Amino acid sequence: MMGTVSDHPSDLRVRPSLLVPGGELRWRFSRSSGPGGQSVNTTDSRVELSFDLAASSALGPVHKERALARLADRLVDGVVTVTASEHRSQLQNRRAARARLAALLRDATAPPPRPRRPTRPSRASQERRISAKKRRGETKRLRRGEE
Question: Which whole number is the average pLDDT over 65-77?
């Protein structure tokens, strides 16, 4: 996590110009399925991290609009939630959930790719393609046997 002096440990740094305050993040813990030995039924190691994207003041209008559009299928009432339960330790799952949410928001707020400029295939590439097709056809014709 990149940080400046003003970053609080609970804040989530999405990109250098985008910081989600820790107060806007909601954590939930529950028992995780999978291995864990004797402590499996006693520790709440599964982590759910929720972020109210629609009500957030951390994102500017452009980033918020972009994120809401791109994450529309993942949002429930404007809230995006990520879970982590692959580790036996709650701390490791918290770190995994933070990283997952940061990556999700980073991708959702990224600028759209530049539009593709249509180009035409070069004459040499067309000739290479046609000659490869002819070679392949010749190979198949030879396999058939002369009739």
Answer: 89
pLDDT at 139: 94
Using DSSP, state whether 120 is helix, strand or coil.
coil
- 72 touches 65 (CB < 8 A): no
pTM over 0.85: no
| Tokens 């030879």, located at residue | 142
The whole domain housing 34 covers 12-109
In a domain, 23, yes or no: yes
- Cβ within 8 Å of residue 92, ≥6 positions away: none
In Å, what is the CA distance from 119 to each residue of 112, 116, 122? 21, 9, 9
CATH of the domain at 83: 3.30.160.20
Is residue 90 included in any domain, yes or no? yes
CA distance 13 to 18: 6
Q: How many domains does the chain have?
A: 1
Residue 140 within a domain: no
CA dihedral 1, 14, 84, 46 (to 10 degrees): 80
29-68, pLDDT tens digit by residue? 888 776 666 666 667 788 899 998 888 888 888 888 988 9
